Amino acid sequence: MTDGHFELELIQWVRVGVLIMCFGGAAWLDHKTRRVSNEWWWAWAKPTLFLLCLELLVLEANWMIWLTASAAVAFASTALMGRPDFSDIMKGSVLDIIVTIWYFVSGVGLVMGAMEYGPVLFDYFDPNVYTDSTLESTTESALLWGQMVIMGLVLIFFEMAWRFRMLHGGADAKAMMLATLLLPSWNGAAFPLNSSGGEFSTAMPPALSLLMWAGLAFLVLPFVMLIRNASAGDLSPLSMSWHASRMPLSEIPLKHVWLLEEVVDKPDGTHGVTRRMRPVRGSRAETDVENVLKELAAEGLEKAWVTAKHPFLLFVFPAILPLVLFGDPIVWITGYF
């Protein structure tokens, strides 16, 4: 297996460029329309898979590694085209049959790779065993196979995160899965740029690091909201001003926001305005906005508290910068403690 350091470094920088263009456009679409179509992800999946194949070619990966990578790609593809349907297979659907064969062949490669490289990896990470130089000829291939397995595990993590509503939007999950395929590992990367050209350690794959940097960006949002509300004179109550803002009733239907106030029946039989810290799914404030706004206006309100529907991609896109500058946030943060 060849080293190909220059080629790998070039591939990684091209990947960063693709990531910036893809996520920049996706963030803009999500901000404007709150929707990123599958056609967008299909278009950017092409250069993503091309670069993955190019990396495997440079590293002279064998067929087991190729098929293990194929298994990860097959799993990711279900986010865009779904899974083969048994009834359609029985009806002779060519596409479902081809995809099923793809899954089977990729699975065979994954199992064969586990049988071939699993013991090598166990020995590699055992300091009491990995002393024999004869292991070196297969260790590099085993590590590359392990990277493809980790890539698949990260894809599964994002799938589960979406299903358990840790990632609320389908576009968010698809974006992170594309990032996983686009940056499967730190192998050959010339970043983080603050590593001074030396070796740097990592605790997480790049896609998980990107997710964490995006999550850390959320911590800045309350301060932005407080400054914004202070300038508008809406700091009271403080329990609302750190995460919400007051908006004229006439503008609410035109904006991508959740309404946090509505008129309800009180225990004493009167009507009154109630305010919530967070939106409640299925409430009248979500399903019957027009009538709720009329009721609020009847109570004499001109403005109501709302919280913006912040697209997650607006935080993921700028998170690319600290990813390139600082790399793994866990290693970078703990390095200062």
Number of domains: 2
The portion of residues assigned to helices is 55-70%
Q: C-alpha Rg, in Å?
A: 25 Å
> How many strand units?
5
Task: Report on this structure.
This protein is mainly alpha-helical and 337 residues long. It folds into two domains: 186 residues, no CATH class; 134 residues, no CATH class. Helices cover 61% and strands 7% of the residues. The chain contains 15 helices and five strands. The strands form two sheets. The chain has a three-stranded antiparallel beta sheet. A two-stranded antiparallel sheet has the order 3-4. α1 runs antiparallel to α2, α3 runs parallel beside α6 and α5 crosses α6. It is elongated, with a radius of gyration of 25 Å. 31% of the residues are buried. The model has no long low-confidence stretch (mean pLDDT 86).
Please sum up the structure shown:
The chain is mainly alpha-helical.
Give the SSE layout.
Elements (H helix, E strand, L loop, with lengths): L4 H29 L4 H21 L4 H19 L4 H5 L3 H31 L11 H28 L6 H13 L23 H13 L2 H12 L5 H4 L3 E4 L8 E3 L1 E5 L5 E5 L8 H4 L1 H10 L4 E6 L4 H4 L3 H7 L2 H6 L3
Antiparallel strand pairs: 1-5, 2-5, 3-4
Helix pairs in contact: 1-2, 1-7, 2-3, 2-7, 3-5, 3-6, 3-7, 5-6, 6-7, 7-8
Features:
2 domains; elongated
